[in-house]
Design a protein that fits this description.
This protein is mainly alpha-helical and 175 residues long. The chain is built from 7 helices and 4 strands; from the N terminus they run ββαααααββαα. The radius of gyration is 20 Å and the shape is globular.
């Protein structure tokens, strides 16, 4: 067993996880469930159905994308993307047009209204998250950002090495 920088034991990739890390994992999972219970009312989250993620994918793209490209980039199913695009189109945030290169394909384009609303949403999100971070305080905020960054690095390293990143079947929940 290797030693972590903080001096605690670290399991090798092929070994069992030490008992204290399993206890911490249990506590972290419990906290995560408790935090999920604090999510917005169902009618709010149901009304959004992945729209912010889809808008982010579209806004980050260099140009129009097909529904399939959006679904892959957003990590949602084709059925979910169809419903989400329909809702975004009804709100006037996107439009679907035949591809210039292949008239059989559809491309999704963000409208000016969509850009304006996405910008407003992002500003609202910055204020909301900023308020939470203010309540955490500077030290805990810096620690949180550092730890989440490290988690991202560990996940990316595991992915590159072909090691497990998510529990088996976790990606099937939205399918």
């Amino acid at each position: 067993m290797a030693e972590e920088k903080s001096g605690g034991p670290v399991a090798s990739p092929e070994g069992d996880v030490p008992a204290e890390y399993r206890l911490w994992a249990r506590e972290l999972l419990k906290l995560s469930v408790d935090m999920r219970r604090q999510r917005p009312a169902p009618e709010i989250s149901q009304g959004m159905r992945g729209m912010p993620m889809v808008m982010r994918v579209l806004l980050d793209a260099d140009g129009p994308l097909s529904p399939g490209q959006i679904a892959r980039a957003a990590g949602v199913t084709d059925a979910r993307i169809a419903n989400t695009l329909r809702a975004l189109e009804q709100r006037g945030y996107i439009r679907r047009e035949p591809s210039e290169h292949d008239r059989r394909r559809v491309e999704v384009i963000v409208t000016e209204e969509g850009r304006r609303r996405a910008s407003e949403h992002f500003d609202e999100l910055l204020d909301l998250v900023g308020g939470f971070l203010e309540e955490l305080g500077e030290r805990d905020t810096r620690d949180l950002i550092r730890i989440l960054g490290h988690i991202g690095q560990v996940m990316e390293a595991r992915r590159r090495e072909g090691r497990q990143v998510c529990p088996p079947g976790a990606g099937d929940a939205g399918r």
